[in-house]
Amino acid sequence: MLRQLPYIAVLVLAIAGVAYTNIANQPLVGYWEFLLIVMGVVCVVTQWDSAHDRRARFRLILTQALHWIAILVTMNIVLLSALRTMLPAPATSLVLLTLLALGTFLAGVSFLSLQICFLGLAMALAVPAIAWFKQSALFLILAAVLLIGIGIIFWPRRSDGQAAKSR
Fold it and tell me: Is pTM, for the whole model, over 0.85?
């Protein structure tokens, strides 16, 4: 249960950010940047045990730092350029959430992690949910995504020993 806590926390933070964006119609620039840093830390922490030696751990930290810095720089390019003046406040948050979702999904693919991929997918699905659905429908969809995410996280898995015994 404790190993799944980081995934649940990021998913809840993302859904809270989506809900706030929908209600307030204000950009959450700092919030999405904070969530990006949290997601980078979650990626390193959850993959730490798979890095067996000091060199592998250094490589994990370095590759994740570069990955998330690239996403952060992209977010700031959107915020500092003339593009921001062309986008209304809610659209700015949606663009930042889309970039965060992309970074999260790509990190999950890199690690072959179903949980991290799901987080990215859930964040990406939140973008059209905010843009196209009314508030009541949005909360129902986000609740369903949350329940599916919790179901995936807690889905019983057999260990390698159990799988070998069943053969």
Answer: no
